[in-house]
Specification:
The chain is an alpha/beta fold. The chain has 2 domains: about 1-140, Tetrapyrrole methylase, N-terminal domain (Cobalt-precorrin-4 Transmethylase, domain 1, 3-Layer(aba) Sandwich), CATH 3.40.1010; about 145-250, Methyltransferase, Cobalt-precorrin-4 Transmethylase, Domain 2 (2-Layer Sandwich). Helix content is about 35%, strand content about 25%. The chain has 7 helices and 10 strands. The strands form 2 sheets. It has a 5-stranded parallel β-sheet with strand order 3-2-4-1-5, with helices on both faces. A 5-stranded mixed β-sheet has the order 6-7-10-8-9, with helices on both faces. It is globular, with a radius of gyration of 20 Å.
Length: about 260
């Protein structure tokens, strides 16, 4: 039977791979690489470098496929993502069906952790449920940008006995959650943090975490919001895209 591994490869540092992930890499015959264009070619090369670094021998191959494009500024975000995942499902199904032989093991290498703001698990599960292909699959967790962000800033995600919320910039634009004091924000294309500069928040921001291009800024939001904005603008000019996240929490008298 065919096997498919969904492997979390961490947030950018090749050393973020777990021992489980390294062992999984060494089982793979075919790595499926989704090409998202020239701007993100470095992410493809990073995956290849991980394989060169952690796999014993060279008895494996890469299969490239073009990742479907989507309208990032679409008003109906959920419908847009549903359409995107449907298009990806077609691509994934072709890869598993045509590029993976019976008895072989294929893998999708997922940035960060496959369970957090990534649809690879959903897509592979949907393919399995159609019954058109027969295969088994497994998910290997990875170190997410959320974990790496907190570690880089030498802080914790939550205060003692308190909860955190992990959300998107799109949701944060609707307002800061009322029942938590710490929020991790991912996928913030619209600089949602700016809405809170007149309030008493601390922020821990990071971009390209774990890579040579890593940028870290922290402090009172009202004091560092301009620094973050300039860093984001410069990163977009330099790289053509930005991969960042941040932790915002209500300021207190020093309780942790």
């Amino acid at each position: 039977m065919k096997r498919v591994l969904i492997i979390g490869i961490g947030a950018g540092d090749p050393d973020y791979l777990t021992i489980q992930a390294v062992n999984a890499l060494n089982q793979v015959d075919v790595f499926f690489l989704m090409d998202k264009g020239d701007d993100k070619a470095s992410l493809i090369e990073f995956r290849r470098e991980i394989c060169r670094r952690h796999i014993k021998g060279d008895d494996y191959r890469f299969v490239d496929a073009t990742s479907p494009a989507w309208a990032r500024d679409a008003e109906d975000y959920r419908a847009t993502i549903d359409d995107l995942n449907h298009d990806k499902q077609d691509v994934f199904e072709r890869l598993i069906g045509e590029e993976l032989a019976e008895g072989e093991c294929g893998a999708f290498l997922v940035w960060g952790d496959p369970t957090l703001y990534d649809s690879t698990i959903r897509i592979v599960e949907a393919i399995a449920k159609t019954g058109r292909l027969t295969f088994e699959y497994e998910v290997i967790p990875g170190i997410s940008s959320v974990q790496a962000l907190a570690a880089k800033h030498k802080t914790t995600l939550n205060r003692i006995g308190q909860s955190i919320e992990i959300t998107t910039g799109r949701k944060l634009n609707e307002g800061f959650p009322t029942d938590v004091d710490s929020v991790v924000v991912m996928l913030d294309a619209r600089d949602a943090y700016k809405h809170f500069v007149d309030q008493d928040f601390d922020i821990y921001w990071g971009a390209y975490i774990g890579t040579p291009d890593e940028i870290l800024i922290s402090g009172k939001l009202k004091d560092v919001a301009g620094d973050i904005e300039r860093a984001r603008d410069e990163a977009r000019r330099t790289h053509g895209w930005i991969m960042d996240s941040y932790l915002m929490r209500r300021a207190t008298d020093g309780a942790t």
